[in-house]
Amino acid sequence: AALDIASPKRTNDLLRKHNLTLKKSLGQNFLVDPNILNKIVSAADLDASKGALEIGPGIGALTQQLAKIAGRVVAVEIDQRLLPLLQETLEGYPQATVVLGDVLKVDLRALIKEQFQGVSKISVVANLPYYVTTPILMKLLEEKLPLEHIVVMIQKEVADRMAAPPGGKDYGSLSIAVQYYCEPEIVTIVPHTVFIPQPNVDSAVIKLTVRERPPVEVEDEAFFFDVVQASFTQRRKTIYNNLAAKYFTKETKPQLEGLLHEAGIEPSRRGETLSMEEYARLSRVLARHLN
Ligand code: SAM
Question: Keywords of this protein's UniProt record, alphabetized (predicted)?
């Protein structure tokens, strides 16, 4: 098999050899630290019976390590210029396949069906392009793909928001969306020095274990997320004011206080203090009233 490429020297040599200049617009910050790669790969609980779906293989540093452990690796890369390089770095790993495409446009359910036949469990493992972290993760979650874990390197600030419990400044609609579908765990904080080129922010590896079923009972998921979103529209305002602005008119507004009480929520609270269970209750009460 090809040499491991996760070192600054090997990475720079390869980029030079292929005359490749990295595109900031595609979030091309390549990992050059074997220890961090190790932490990512071990967090994913892979073995030869399992598969890894990688998003953005770059020049293949993580792909190589995944291919050593997983039975099957499929990596979706948007930048065509990287294909010859990946062919070189993935030589000797026949279980690894690169697919050219924009992960936001690819039909991932079809890709999984096609590419992971006979594989027991599939996890997404990636060092994500930071400019599209949230859209990519929301796509993976909302499409309810058959995934075991999602282990990804993302901006530390975004990881903190995803894993945040109620009550603090990091807690918001992203926390609730992620925690509705998954159990989050921050695996490690990563300094910007382990990338070429170095990004301006610190990163974190987050492990999302996909739940078999949501932790709360929600009748209309779209409406539940709509209520959550509305409750955080103006963080400094009360839940009462945010909901009034979104769902009520001057005439219907007097009913809101009673509805909040029916859901067991003090109207003077702020959105950031409500648990997921409270949002579920609130959305059930509001749905019954508004529809
Ligand atoms: N996995 C490599 C590593 O860890 O060194 C590269 C990670 S780099 C942060 C992100 C990679 O995602 C780049 O190779 C970039 O070209 C690719 N990428 C960016 N946008 C993408 C998209 N929409 N779909 C698929 N790949 C994308």
Answer: Cytoplasm, Methyltransferase, RNA-binding, rRNA processing, S-adenosyl-L-methionine, Transferase
